[in-house]
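Hi R.,

Here's the chain you asked about this morning:
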Amino acid sequence: MILHSVCMLINHPAAVSSERRRPSLFMANSAPVYLFLILVWGLIPLALARTGLRIEVDEFGMVGCVFTFALWLAWCLRGRGLARVATVLEAWTLFYTICFTVSLMTFVAATSQRAFFDGPLAYADRILLPGFDWPGTMLSFSRSGLPVRIANWVYESIKWQPQLLILALALMSNHRRVWHFLLSWITTLCIVVGVFALYPVLGAYDYFGIAAGNVPAMLDPTPWNQPVLLDGLRNGTLRLISLGTLAGIVNFPSFHAGAAVLLAYGFWSIRAMRWIFVTLNTLMLASAVPIGGHYIVDLLAGVIAAAAGIAVAGWITDRVEPVLDWLRPFTWRPVNRHKGHVKRPLSA
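And here is the predicted structure, written out as tokens:
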């Protein structure tokens, strides 16, 4: 009976091909994202011990269990052939994991005692825009009514745009673009954190002495919470990090500006959503100055970081696929990579 089955497979190679194309748990393009998380979480205990920081183990452990269950469910769904649903769930889970992980990385980097870099950035703004009065402009904009309300809304759109982009791309079966977006997000964040570790910044509102009460229309408290967190991490009064403690503390480069570039680039591949989200992210980039308390030069640095992140992610994606060909029996690919197949470019 076994010999008969073997002969049938030999005589019918299509059966073998069909078996090899059976969906399995993982997508090869997701490997760099998982590798990043594994490497960082392997180093975080050493970094925490070196800096004297501690984390709320119960809180982080609970979130880790939830994320692990979500990933397991996504793998099971892909194994059942529900590729699009699986990619949405897996990519959403990994996106939030990346955000938590990099936020923790910024807290570790903030313990350095390097001098704050606000003075040179404020000077660079005066060189770029002679006569630009940052404090006066922000005080006036706070009283602008509708424009400041729009700025608040578009600035906060960073909280839902990535999830919508992942959902749209996955439903279009553009799985490769999903993983390129996540890898671009990671590489841009790594560039931003690296620069932040060398050139910490308190932010323009703190540098110019503008209290939150002077600009009540600016609803995001981050520009005023950021200096408090940085001081606590530097002087040792903040040593225990909980989920509630994690917040944005990076001012230069502006990741809001970088995210605007990444999201506009991601939505550009979706014709029906292209111009709506290019416009939205252009506004989000501009809103980072009044709402996020950024210097103008912060935006330029954020745009450069995102452009570099996209390029590096593309380079990694193009080179990791041939390396991972030997894992093909254990991974799932949205397209067949047989001889003569032309790989769909990221711009498609």
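One quick note: Residues 296-323 form the longest helix (28 residues).

Cheers,
M.
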